[in-house]
Write a structure and sequence with these properties.
By secondary structure, the protein is mainly alpha-helical. It has a domain at about 145-214. The chain has helices at about 1-10, 25-55, 55-60, 65-75, 80-110, 130-145, 145-175, 190-205. The radius of gyration is 20 Å and the shape is globular. About 10% of the residues are buried.
Length: about 210
């Protein structure tokens, strides 16, 4: 579950930079829905390809399945090329996370939950103090060398984040019933209520095992 939550989280990432869009009401839905569809198709295609090349036991034990599959299906040296490409792709992931984190700190600072200095924005529109704080925090986590524990903690906290966001929708609708809402959510409020039952019914009993070897 931790691996799944970590792998698929991020589909909503465009919301963090919505303030910087020229036409957020038009761009944001396209980015979220289009991005989710594109990544889903990519995941399916890649997984089908891997399953056609690698047996399940080999796939389960592999640390970089794409490189192992390339070693079998492509000429000599292809595994090295795939490994290098994977590392380059990781840079885009780091870049995406460095877009999201500082804007969370920026918003918290604007609301008075963090030092006001973190709400400062540079001439180019980047929240530079918040960016610096995010980079320093990430570097400190890297230095600890406790990657598995950090991912386990992240998986729990991200579910808490989902719960808080969905609860905030109910609060916002109650406090601001007349606020402008250009989009309607299908089936509201049933999907959100259903989701709020999932962590308590399925996920939370297992979250207590964090840090305990399997």
């Amino acid at each position: 579950m931790r691996a799944i939550v970590t792998a698929y989280d991020g589909w909503y990432a465009p919301i963090y930079t919505a303030e910087e869009y020229s036409h957020p009401a038009r761009t944001l839905p396209r980015a979220i829905i289009g991005g989710a569809v594109a990544v889903t198709c990519l995941y399916v295609v890649v997984n089908v390809a891997l399953l056609r090349v690698l047996p399940i036991p080999v796939l389960a034990a592999s640390t970089l399945p794409a490189a192992d599959a390339a070693r079998i299906a492509l000429p000599y040296g292809s595994a090295t090329i795939i490994t290098v490409l994977s590392l380059l792709i990781m840079l885009s992931l780091v870049n995406a996370n460095l877009f999201m984190g500082p804007r969370i700190l920026l918003s918290l600072a604007r609301e008075g939950w963090l030092p006001q200095k973190l709400a400062d924005v540079g001439a180019g529109g980047s929240p530079q103090p918040a960016l610096a704080a995010t980079v320093i925090g990430a570097a400190l986590l890297i230095v600890t060398g406790t990657f598995d524990e950090i991912v386990a903690l992240f998986a729990v906290l991200i579910v808490l984040n989902y719960v808080a966001v969905f609860l905030s929708v109910f609060v916002l609708r109650y406090r601001s019933p007349d606020a402008l809402r250009p989009f309607r959510a299908w089936g509201y409020p049933c999907p959100r209520r259903s989701f709020l039952l999932v962590p308590s019914a399925f996920y939370w009993p297992r979250s207590s095992r964090i840090g305990v070897p399997a």
